From TrEMBL:
One biological process term in Gene Ontology: carbohydrate derivative metabolic process
Region entry Disordered, spans: 204-251
Domain of life: Bacteria
One Pfam family in the UniProt entry: SIS_2
Coiled-coil portions: none
Record protein name field: SIS domain-containing protein
Length: 251
């Protein structure tokens, strides 16, 4: 009986994947290109979910801050549930429905992206977060269970998994996360230019001490680097955005 149940779960997963993969590939490829454009220009990705979806949200941010496959620069991505002190303080003072929205208000800027994961598509704290993201000018994407659902309705675009089981929905959300990372990396590679300071610093195209290296004029400690005139403590972040870092218009 147990074996038959396990096989049935796999059968359900295969059936859902068959109906999901082609539509998902088109949607997620588009999302990956947008993500590469935005994060490559200095924007930030905020991600949120509850329970197992929170774990998958953090899986996505780990792939962006770390790497998915090949070596590349890190990008700004935050899983909003991961700051337990802030999350519990907000829940205690403002209610659980505000745990993500208040962090969106704190960290989000116009042009940033918010990704929300939910098997039901009905989590109140995610719906409030989506509304707050729109208020500050962010783009909202959602991975959900079957359509229609409330989160699909408030997101700018949603990828909905047509499966009856929450477990199957979560499994396909993980597939979508990995497809998104594939698309993101492909888009970055297409945009990679020889001598680009950020790529050169990470991938060793410079000599390590010259203009193309980590410590040169375009490196981590140069004029356009992390601690230079346009760096993390200057007027902008070295990526052309005045509202990053700790400068006059920073966070």
């Amino acid at each position: 009986m147990k074996l038959a149940t396990d096989v049935a779960h796999c059968d359900d997963l295969m059936k859902a994947l068959e109906g999901f993969r082609w539509h998902a590939a088109r949607v997620v490829d588009r999302w990956g290109i947008t993500l590469a454009d935005r994060l490559g220009a200095g924007a930030r990705l905020l991600v949120a979910g509850n329970g197992g979806s929170a774990a998958q949200a953090q899986h996505l941010t780990a792939e962006l801050v770390g790497r998915y496959r090949d070596d590349r620069p890190p990008f700004s991505a935050l899983a909003l549930h991961a700051d337990t002190s802030s999350t519990t303080a907000i829940a205690n003072d403002y209610g659980v429905q505000e745990i993500f929205a208040r962090q969106v208000a704190a960290h989000g800027r116009a042009g940033d992206l918010l990704m929300l994961l939910s098997t039901s598509g009905a989590s109140a704290n995610l719906l409030v977060a989506a509304q707050e993201a729109h208020r500050v000018g962010m783009t909202v994407r959602a991975l959900t269970g079957p359509a229609p659902n409330p989160l699909q309705g408030v997101a700018d675009e949603a990828l909905c998994v047509e499966a009856a089981s929450a477990a199957t929905v979560q499994e396909l959300h993980l597939v979508a996360v990995h497809m998104l990372c594939e698309s993101f990396d492909r888009a970055l590679e297409r945009r990679r230019l020889p001598g680009n300071g950020r790529w050169a610093a990470m991938l060793g195209e410079g000599d390590g001490h010259g203009k193309g290296g980590r410590f040169g004029e375009d490196g981590a400690f140069g004029e356009d680097g992390g601690l230079g005139e346009d760096g993390a403590f200057g007027d902008n972040d070295g990526l052309g955005r005045k509202d990053r870092g700790l400068g006059e218009d920073g966070r």
